[in-house]
Amino acid sequence: MHIPDQESRGHISPLKTYLTVWVALLILTGITYGASYVNWGGTLMNVIVAVIIATVKAALVLLYFMHMKHESRLVWGYGIVYPLLLFALLLGFSSIDVFLRVIPTVTP
Fold first, then answer.
1. Where in the chain are the domains?
2. Which of 13, 41, 62, 76 could form a disulfide with 45 if both were Cys (CB 3.0 to 4.6 A apart)?
3. The model's pTM
4. Distance from C-alpha of 79 to C-alpha of 73, rounded to nearest angstrom
């Protein structure tokens, strides 16, 4: 909704930027597809490679399509860094639970 008395804070990126990011996302999607057929040395390395590619794609979408590249530090702090820290905390505690879990053995 536009309020007439307020100054617009929108940022308009050139079409070339959007097309370049779109092509980069298509290339990264192809790399993801190709990487799924390569054995990188075990399940853990396969997951790490997939997560790295997904992180690069998410960063491109976040920076260019969601216009976070032009936001202030306050928005970056509360909108990006804080949720990532909470996610890391959740992932850390979940992994502690999974990796330190003792599975009982059944003896006949």
1. 14-66, 72-100
2. 41
3. 0.66
4. 10
